[in-house]
Amino acid sequence: MKKRDKRTEILEIGTELISSNGFNATGIDPVLKKAGIPKGSFYNYFKSKEEFGLAIIDKFADEYDSKLETFFGDTALPPLQRMRNYMEHSLEHLAENNCSRGCLVGNLGQELADQNDRFRSRIESIFRSWQKMFNECLHEAQQKGDLAKEIECDALAEFILAGWEGAILRAKVMQSPHSLRIFIDILFSSILLP
Questions:
Q1: CA angle 163, 106, 59 (to 5 degrees)
Q2: What is the distance between the alpha carbons of residues 10 and 37, in angstroms, rounded to a whole number?
């Protein structure tokens, strides 16, 4: 049990450092120093830095999927309100952190997609799962009459995800949630219409 707890601690520290500095700029030594374990012990938990990075991505994705499920799974609310609640919550969270971190998966996608096919493939599968969640929400909104029937939900879900990730990147660059506010307002006032 202790080994698993230390592994989780290493992943949490790694996530924090990689979120701030990026994957390539984050060495193993600062992670291990902060975790209080010798370098040789790292390989008891992970075969390589690449395996460590993939484990961080998987841990983040699992936790983020649970977060998304709390919003998108709240069937007491209309589907588009669920999506808006998720986006408003995310905007508030990013604003609290001065838009300094952005989305870990988006950040790593930008940094690593053209450098490492294992990272690219894993990140793409995460984006596909998020797109699927948006797609299901949009289909449900169509069935309830809250979204125009002629809209192709899968294409719209991809558009929303791409725009959302782009707005997060822009917020990070601007150090302001302004682009997220504009994205949310235009999405719900001009695109997601009955």
A1: 130
A2: 9
The pair of structure tokens assigned to 131 is 């797109």
Q: Are residues 100 and 7 in the same domain?
A: no
- Whether residue 107 contacts residue 22, with contact meaning beta carbons closer than 8 Å, is answered with yes
Tokens 């725009």 belong to 163
pLDDT in the model for residue 171: 94
Q: What is the pLDDT of residues 101-142, one digit of tens each?
A: 778 998 899 999 999 999 999 999 999 999 999 999 999 999
Tokens describing residue 60: 């983040």
- CA 96, CA 113: separation in Å to the nearest integer? 28
26 shares its domain with 83: no
Task: Report, as ranges of residue numbers, the positions in the chain whose pLDDT lies below 50.
Answer: 1-3
What is the spatial distance between Cα 192 and Cα 151, in angstroms, rounded to a whole number?
9
Kindly give, in sequence order, each residue whose CB lies less than 8 Å from that of residue 175, ignoring residues fewer than 6 positions away: 98, 99, 100
Query: Same domain, yes or no, for 41 and 121?
Result: no
Domain that holds residue 130: 56-191
Q: Does residue 51 belong to any structural domain of this protein?
A: no
Residue 60 shares a structural domain with residue 42:
no
Give the DSSP letter string of 79-92: HHHHHHHHHHHHHH
State the DSSP code for 102: -
Tally the domains of the chain.
Answer: 2
Residue 91 located in a structural domain: yes
39 and 63 housed in the same domain: no
